[in-house]
Amino acid sequence: MTLIQDTPQHLLGGLNVALLISHDSSREQMEKTRGALEEMGVTVSVLASGRSAVQVLDGDGLAQSMKPHLAVAVADPDAFDGVVVIASPQGGARLALDGDARQFLARLDAEAKPIGAISDGVLPVLSAGLGAERELSTPEHLVPAAEGAGAVVSQQAMAIDEHLISLTDPAGLDRFISHLKGLLAGRRVQTMAPGGDVSSAVGEGG
């Protein structure tokens, strides 16, 4: 798929993207990703394993509470055009055991919707069965899990395999977001309704 680097806003406006976060995930990664998408007219919803507040960490390690918009158990995959998984090592392991999170990711993957994973967010993706024969960029400690799942471990800090994008080094977050926008726009172009009207997952025009 050709990625659109300078993504036109009309290709993203009205889309719905989920941020699936874990306990102790990076507040900076979450806020930067959400802000960049919302600037383009994307509606971003924060999902977590439950409805209770989760702890997110600032760059200095200080914790803050954040209440998700939805529990992943009640989130409708058909209502979303893509998802980004942001997780800490322990949080990623918990998400990987969450059957609702696995099902949510598998449903989006089945419809070739863009799926992004930052650092340990790769583990829930692997647990959902999405890694087989796909190139993924993973933290060093997750390489055995990735290889065990049949993934091709990338030597690069970021890997893109069709609609799946993964990032190991948070320093590359801007580039990750740019390519994520391109994947979202590319899917919208591919799923344009007859007559040139563009539809999102929930039927909103661009």
Automatic annotation (TrEMBL):
DJ-1/PfpI domain location: 17-178
Coiled-coil positions: none
Highest taxon of the lineage: Bacteria
InterPro entries: Class_I_gatase-like, DJ-1/PfpI
Gene3D superfamilies documented for this protein: 3.40.50.880
A Pfam family hit: DJ-1_PfpI
Stated name of the protein: DJ-1/PfpI family protein
Organism for this UniProt entry: Ramlibacter aurantiacus
Upper lineage: Bacteria, Pseudomonadati, Pseudomonadota, Betaproteobacteria, Burkholderiales
